[in-house]
Amino acid sequence: MLVVTLAACGNSGETFFDARCEPAVLYLNRTGATYQYGGFDDSSANFTPIVDVERTLAPWPHDDIDWASLTSCIRAGLAQVPVTVTEVDPGPTKHTEIVFTTSYWGGQAGTTMITSAGCRDNYEVIFMFGNALPTYARACHLAVRTYAQITANLDLVGDCEDFMNNQLDCSEMRTFKDADAACVDDADVPTECRCGGATQNTYQALLAATTCP
How far is CA 126 from the centre of its chain? Predict the structure, then answer.
């Protein structure tokens, strides 16, 4: 499976949204929608730099039972932190959106997910592709991991029991662990974390990113 993440740390210098802390909201979009190219993500207006032209995306290709299992799994995975998970479009309310659709329009067979994640507070959009995700459990792991990555600037870790581990099906007891873990690359080799340092505490980072002071 291929996961595409267009990631960059730092800020372009532009400020698009109110920087005051707001409750974290995650919208799980199963129905598809039309998305337009924009220089930054805006989940409320359906703008994203990921699409090259205006694109209307199809709904998630799996059935209601699969969807119920997937959303229940995502809610359980994020239960450690104060995130409101909804299947109803929050409209102008600040939120991250995961768009569950069929396949990647870019032509790379096997692409499971693409996002333009960066180290700035924004209205991020994540696209996930059901034709390349055969089980709800794999889709759940990828959704929870990617949400944490773009929300708290997290990187992959080597601990199989942490959601930020990249291996498939290696543990049924994943959590965001409250312990320092070494960042690793896609080959599980220790590397510098995406936004600096050699280790990260995935639980504390995600908790800080989703909690208002």
Answer: 6
178, two tokens: 């409250």
- Could you report the per-residue pLDDT of 163-187, keeping only the tens digit for each? 999 887 776 789 999 999 999 998 8
Name which of 85, 98, 87, 84 is nearest 149 in CA terms.
98
d(CA 5, CA 3) in angstroms, rounded, equals 7
Q: How many Å is the Cα radius of gyration of the chain?
A: 16
pTM for the full predicted model: 0.86
**Residue 156: which of 129, 181, 125 has the closest Cα?**
181
Q: Which helix (H) or strand (E) holds 3?
A: strand 2-5
Ordered structural domains, the chain, with CATH: 2-8+21-155 (3.40.390)
For 22, the token pair is 């707001």
User: Which residues on neighbouring strands pair with residue 35, listed in sequence order?
Assistant: 55
Name the nearest CA neighbour of 126 among 23, 45, 5, 13: 5
